[in-house]
Amino acid sequence: MPVRHPWRILIGVILAIVVAAVVVVAVVAPSTFELLAEGDTRDLREGKEPAPAAREPTVLILALDGVERPLLYDLLASGDLPELARLLGGREGERFPHAHLDDTALAPLPTSTITSWATIFTGVAPAEHGVAGNEYFVRAPEPRFVAPAPVSITAPDLVIQTYTDGYANNQLGAPTLYERVRARGRGAGTSWVAMSQYFRGADRLLLADRTVIADAFAAFLDDDDEPDDLEMFASLDREVIDNVIEELDGTPAPAILTVYLSGTDLFAHDSDTGPDAARRRYLREVIDPLVGDLRRALERQAALVDRHVVVVSDHGHTEVRHDARHALGTDDEDDPPSVVRGAGYRLRPFELDAGDARFDTVLAYGGALAYVYLADRAACGERGCDWSRPPRFAEDVVPLAEAFLAAHRDGTHAPSMKGSLDLILVRQPGSLGQGPFEVYLGGGRTEPLDEHLERHPRAEYVVFAERMLGLAVGPFGTHAGDILLVAHNGNEPDVDRRYYFSGRYYSWHGSPSRLDSEIPLIVAHPRKSAAELRSLVREVAGDRVDAAEITPLIERLLLR
Q1: Are strands 507-508 and 445-448 parallel, antiparallel or unpaired?
Q2: Could you give the C-alpha distances from 246 to 23, 242, 243, 253, 323, in angstroms and in order?
Q3: Averaged pLDDT for residues 210-228
Q4: Which has the closest alpha carbon to 85: 305, 287, 316?
Q5: Residue 303: per-residue pLDDT
Q6: Core-most of 133, 216, 232, 353, by most CB within 10 Å?
Q7: Contact 293/91 with Cβ under 8 angstroms?
């Protein structure tokens, strides 16, 4: 059966965190009860860290999911976000005298939630921290499918486990911002994280209040094709802010306060008004008032007097058609799985635990991109395949790359895939496939990506080849697969020619396009000028901010 709405399960489970245990018990692990029993706040470290001194550097990180730079900056410039403007030190005409609105920051590839926030909160590229997408496959030492935000599989308990057992944290192969700051020792201060997937090393985790109405969760899981329900997502973000404000009542504000709000992204995926209209509405009606509530709570403590404010997002959005033809899902008859099987490969089932299934190929989905992992089929036997061995290029990689090229050209094995792919990227396996990807041209021929882009430029793609190196080359480069499929998506001005690897939605992301890649980065301080703040950002990042430079930037802000 095709998975038509995997993100409905994901979002529903996020809401389930705040629903009574009787609703959750049927789908989650026993560890969830510990979280529900403890309430809405978890102390992550034994003992209490001293409250920050009045003059100690502090920072508020406002992490807004799914908002590209032009959209957010346009709303600020037009005066549609007055509370956010006040948090940034106020406007004077079209200027923000105490805030630097950076116009260079780029998300990593893929431009997906889990990878981008991992990069932002570790300060290293995906091939260095290991989180290659919302879902991906790990070959060794034990093969396993990892899905902090499931797309092709139904595994709702993994989202719960991110908050109960640190599931997303546990995938990181690099220290977090909070661990890096703590490693400095003296002057590290306290750190609170509200609802973010990455909180390892922080002192306190704040979650949405469990009193969110249970029927909102049930309504979301009902696949009734009535997606335009802002309140469904607003309730989650409101509960996050309410819990932060409640925690601040009588408790000194921490040195680092990270507040993650997911609703803008979730509403964009699910709104039939299109991602731009949906996010503009959500930012104006939900996010901006909540920012005002948070600002006033911090002002009651005089906790903004000398605090840097950092506003950042993880990716943008690209509108797509909400139908089965453009959604390249898990249907065995007319989607990528039929190409794999038609070419004679054994595909891993779309399940978290494949059990005793014998497979030599794995698919992982991520909107505009999909990863294909291949075994050395000569080393596969009755007990399965040895995934610690890289595939053979000519015998394993090329035949399947050729099959996907045929599917794109004439619909072989999957008629709906005709005309769906912009690029098929492959790489010589080498040391478990950690080398750079090249463009597959057909007949076993390849071309380096940078050379191909020089000959066939994609005007909408930004810093594509360089960011691909950050995904593919490094200790965890193998997590990006052996074949990487790039759908016609962010490169296409015509929405009717855009495709995506997922169930049906109204918008997606993941591509190297400007829409998906250009993220906002705002640094503000009430006692510093915009010019000073710009100079500080340039000092850390140079002429262009890579998402991996945001953690070093925040570390710099916390220095005296």
Answers
A1: unpaired
A2: 25, 6, 5, 11, 43
A3: 43
A4: 287
A5: 96
A6: 133
A7: no
Residues 497/452, Cβ–Cβ less than 8 Å = no
Residue 452, token pair as written in the block: 């191909």
Encode pLDDT of 253-302 as tens digits: 999 999 999 999 999 998 999 999 999 999 999 999 999 999 999 999 99
What does the chain come to in residues? 560
Locate 535 and state its tokens.
């100079």
DSSP annotation string for 78-123: TTS-HHHHHHTT--BTTB-TTEEEES--B--SS--HHHHHHHHTTS
Domain ranges of the chain: 6-45+54-320+514-557, 336-508
What is the rounded distance in angstroms from the CA atom of residue 70 to the CA atom of residue 514?
10
Instruction: State the SS3 of 459-518.
Output: CCECCHHHHHHHHHCCCCHHHHCCEEEEECCCCCCCHHHCCEECCCCCEECCCCEHHHHE
Q: What is the pLDDT of residues 153-182, one digit of tens each?
A: 988 778 888 888 999 999 999 999 999 998
**Could you give the CA distance from residue 394 to residue 400 in angstroms, rounded to a whole number?**
10
**Distance between CA 347 and CA 470 in Å, rounded?**
28
Q: Average the pLDDT over 428-436 and give the result.
A: 71
Instruction: Look at domain 6-45+54-320+514-557 and name its CATH class.
Output: alpha beta
Question: Pairing mode, if any, of strands 438-442 and 421-426?
Answer: antiparallel
Q: Where are the alpha helices (DSSP H) in 135-223?
A: 157-164, 177-183, 214-221
User: How far from 407 is each of 81, 424, 439, CA to CA, in Å?
Assistant: 46, 11, 16
DSSP 8-state class, residue 312: E
